[in-house]
Amino acid sequence: MSSPERKISLTGRLPGRFGFAAVALSVALAGCTGVQPLYQDGGVASPTGYSSTSNELSRVAVEPQPTRTGQRIRNDLLFRLNGGADPGGNAGGDYQLALRVTNRKEDLLVRPELNRSTGRFVTIIVTYTLRASASDEVLTTGTVQRSAAIEVTDQTFAAERAELDAENRASSDVADSIRTELAAWFATRG
Hints:
With 190 residues, the chain is α+β, with helices and mostly antiparallel strands. It has helices at residues 14-30, 52-57, 68-82, 156-188; strands at residues 60-62, 95-111, 116-132, 138-151. It has a single domain (52-188), classed as Lipoprotein like domain (Double Stranded RNA Binding Domain, 2-Layer Sandwich), CATH 3.30.160.150.
């Protein structure tokens, strides 16, 4: 004698759960209709093949910097904004980007038996201001801060080189962040 087998049906309680999940997902995604890629031109092709955001970024001139770290950030920004070309040149770009760069070094992991620190944070803080060249009107401002950690050794050259490498890493991160913030500003200003 065999026991009756229970037939498992997909028409039981599962469709109700799937139906609820499908409706909830549809409602959640309905608010995403205005989302588009940051560098998309809204479907209109520009003459250069780049998006309007990329075109706007390529017209940003970055002011010269007096410090090594500031110059490094400026060079990284020029490369990220326009492939290394300076739109400022002799005529000047449509936009001027002013940078105020601050370096800070913070000792960590102080070892009393050695009477020195064995670790350090190198922090770069940049306050930027984007202005329209024609009117000198401030369009947007922001502050970006990035840190990089290093190990400090007894070897003078190795410690100095590690500090420079940390500044370079933090500078590159700062330039990436500023470019992204400017791109977001250009994309949303409508």
